[in-house]
User: Fold this.
Amino acid sequence: MDPQRTLRRQVSCAGIGLHSGNKVTLSLKPAPANSGIRFRRSDLGGLEIPATVDYLAGIHYATGLASKRGGVETVEHLLAALVGLGVDNAIVELNHPEVPIMDGSAAPFVYLVQEAGIKVLPAPRQVLRVTRPVELARGDKRMAVYPCDHFRVTYSISFDHPLLRHQARTVSLLGDAFTEEIAPARTFGFLKEVEMLRQNGLALGGSLENAIVIGETGVLNNPLRFEDEFVRHKILDAMGDLALVGHPILGHVVAHRAGHALHTAFAAKLLESRDAWELAELAAPLPASVAVPAAATVKSAIAGR
Assistant:
């Protein structure tokens, strides 16, 4: 069988919340089989919030989860790292309501998971195998999933800007593809949007160190890690948001100009479309979760691009 996985040991890091600007301490901890990924607020007496669409909260330039007693914001990059490395069960403990932004990508979280190590659990993993297409459109934004024997994403973006009018990429997330091709891609924003966000009390922790900032003629800060880093980051966001389905997806996801709001709405619609998928136990491990690359892989991806 393809077994469930958790972390081998606890690991911790500290960083800055993108929107709050406050320092955050984060710890990743092992969790038992069938518990899923859960966020725990140590500053709220250990309040736990499962990473599922049932706890989806407002979408404000990032994905948030909440219960009646509290919530957690900007969860998508960390969730992408966990599911991208095949972690089914984990506790994410925070002392603040926002996951730290780190360098704006999922690479630091991948490195953290690699430091913790992966532990196989004595329980089978259930995957959501897509059996018929599911589609969702809102204006010119579209998202769909089609049957496929592995997790595959095709994403296209289009902006009225000379640097990134149109970008498209297809990635089959097998083996090291997530770690090497998607995880290092950083979040991005336009300078005029950053100024507007700050006037509204958001992006207070944003800087040239944790985002690609685009001016009228080009990127204002560090060189791009990939020529098409923008669309790669959109794939990263989609992976993190679709993690709220609660199971690995066997299907080909296709998205055009979609963002967090459509990603999460699509995750909810997919779960509601009960005749479009089946939960299955695989006889062999999914290729995307067989090998956890050496930590040096992510370090070199960050330094070399």
Observations:
- The two ends are 38 Å apart (CA to CA).
- Confidence is low (pLDDT under 50) at residues 288-305.
- Residues 229-242 form the longest helix (14 residues).
